[in-house]
Amino acid sequence: MNFNEILKPEIQKFIIENTGLDTNKLALKKNPFSQIEFKILLNQIESRTKSKNKLPTWFNGNNIIYPTKISIEQTSSEATAKYKSEIVSGESLIDLTGGFGIDDYYFSKKNDTIIHCEINPELSKIVSHNFKQLNALNINCIEGDSLKTLEKLNQKFSWIYIDPSRRNDAKGKVFMLKDCLPNVPDLQDTYLEYSDNILIKTAPILDISAGLQELKNVKQIHVVAVDNEVKELLWIIEKKYNGEISIKTVNFTKQNKEVFDFNINSESKVNYDFPKKYLYEPNNAVMKSGGFNQIASFFSVYKLHKNSHLYTSDELIDFPGRAFQIEKKVNFSKKDMIENFSNQKMNVTVRNFPDTVENIRKKWKIKDGGNQYCFFTTDKNENKIALICTKINF
């Protein structure tokens, strides 16, 4: 990629003016710049478009060069990168899987020096250029194999950061860390020779119990969601650590930040009861964490059923998830269902219920949307019920 050509003012102007437009339609037009391949230009436009909401600092920066759109799709968002920087600080950090460098940009604000390792030479050059444009001058980009870089530098770092990627031949298999590059379970002891602290980012598809079987010395696990979509799991490893493992959940919403923390093996007494005045549905970060009993105990709410993961109380509480006022409980019988749901407009959710939302809508003629919410679930006596609710906005 010819950086000098891309950075020419007239080409940068063209990229900015066409951001947000359909590149498939643009591709049908004549390339206005003979000195650069049109597909390279179109990729800059498409990648910049994808960065608008996810990477506003890069989007609003001057003379930023973008990698392939796949790199943009796979990189951390600024929201999650900033969160990671708040849990990792020290004199030095080495990122063994640098990528587009979003995480390192934020790490550079909390750590004195950062080393960005990237095996792709072109991507390494792109990232190095962008860091200069963004005035992140304490980051050193090194291209090549990160393990060889570690061995060559031969120094102790405050932190090692790794974002392993799944190997192509691992598609279709159960997600395991050993199927990723680098193979962190095999290399963990080697990494701990160069740092006492490791932060690993994994995709949310990884099962937490499976990760704990593969990794040693896990101190914390962070489950990070944005707008109720789990984006990543963060694993903090400390050399020789063998104490309690804490799980920290966070969900960044447009209004606030929902958090809930607990120790993975903590004993929690759970009480079960029938639906009361209010109903609570945990956010997806909590759901991914598996802290179903811990959240019931902490907030002193009742579970409807062991497997329903819906909670209820007589007093309204500030809960990490959605809260509803229960307007009516409906028994799951043909008469009651027809009477309460036929041709009604509702938002339908199922929890621990032997049917799908699609089938329920079709069978009982429920239209999608509206201001009412209905949860089809099972109560503590194994009865199938439907709860008609109104959402509470805090």
From TrEMBL:
Pfam families: PG_1098_Fer, Thump_like. It comes from the Bacteria. Residues 321-391 form the THUMP-like domain. Residues 278-320 form the PG-1098 ferredoxin-like domain. Gene3D superfamilies: Methyltransferase PG1098, N-terminal domain (1.10.10.1110), Vaccinia Virus protein VP39 (3.40.50.150). Signal peptide: none annotated. InterPro entries: PG_1098_Fer (IPR054168), SAM-dependent_MTases_sf (IPR029063), Thump-like (IPR041497). This is SAM-dependent methyltransferase. It comes from Flavobacterium chungnamense.
